[in-house]
Amino acid sequence: MYAKCNDILASRKVFDYMPKRNVVTLNAMIGGYLKHKYMDSASILFDQMSNRTEVTWIEMIQGFARSGDTVKARYLFNKVPPELKNVVTWTVMVDGYTSNGEMEAARDLFEEMPQRNFFVWSSMISGYFKRCDIKEAKAMFDQIPVRNLVNWNSLISGYVQNGLCEKGLEAFRKMQAEKFEPDEVTFASVLSACAQLGLLDTGKEIHSMINHNKIKLNRFVLNALVDMYAKCGDLMHARSIFEEMGIRNNACWNAMISGFAIHGQCKEALEFFRRMKSSNERPDEITFLSVLSACAHGGYVDEGLQIFSEMEKYALAANIKHYGCLVDLLGRSGKLKEAYDLIKRMPFKPNDAVWGALLGACRIHGDTNLVEQIIIKLGTSNSFESGDDSHYVLLSNIYAASDRWERAESMRVVMANKGIPKNPGCSSVMLGNTEQQIGANSR
Hints:
Structural class: mainly alpha
Helix content: 55-70%
Number of helices: 25
Radius of gyration: 27 Å
Strand order of the largest sheet: 1-2
């Protein structure tokens, strides 16, 4: 109890005062040490044990694997007496490899297993998804002789975490067709897919299914519901669920703040940010990114600068996305020189998104002089790194808007010389539950 409640000193004190100890006591103390990364202390107790059970070996292997030391974990695995090496021992070692991204070693050991349980299949599927090897993850799923819900959840969540939300929803439908009842993990994943795709109607159907199936509304499901409604623009429902939650974590606050920011309700985003600061939950990097974005779209320059400076108070280091939001904030409000000076002072090399924010502001405010300075600084030969045409099209449009047609055409020539195609504009709309792409011949 003390070890699991993070008081390892009290745990050891009770252990030392025990008049008599057995293997269960020793396993509990070893597990406590390993949980808190006291690897040497766990090893000393392990070496002193005269009678070890399969639990002892599993605790040690799992503990070292979780700490990232798969070499030591494998050494212990190889030392397990044959009569104590069961399917769980094998699974823990395979999972240790997959958790550390060592998929080749995991696959080799997986192939050697005398028998497999459902968890080791899921561990392999999740491991391949973490490495973005979608093909191998699906191939592993297809090989499972008898699937259970955990295997389906690994497939669905893997697709969604890799941005393949349509495939995640398709797998969810197939899972239902095979008569598997979804649980909290399933619903959290499919709600995330709906959020990313903006499928409000599908999200509402999932919400109804949750209520109908009497699924326990734990924090993961509630966070997913808030996120789905917020991202899909139904902020009334998102706020209603949020206000009824007893305990709110970072993810929940961030979902609301970002939802308000995305859908132009900037005052509400700032209000929720103030509420979050006065609660027990600390803002994180994502929180500040969402609030700065809200300030940029709402034109709250002073508030945005103040909020940016608050990151230091929470011991958070601003990354290039935070600086990009600040450039966008200054640029939109017409403070183009300040935005350009900020870019020059940034502790990072500005990327395409940062330059794009400034160039977009130059277009809005018609400042071709600053555009010329940017081009001189960067040089047209290596201006942008992504190979995307958007910045060159933007430059061309800026010059065209100020009737400088010769310079506008020169940007098109640069694109042609670099072999950068001008991609046609494209929009997507939902017809029923099917996404349809609508192209255009020009931007």
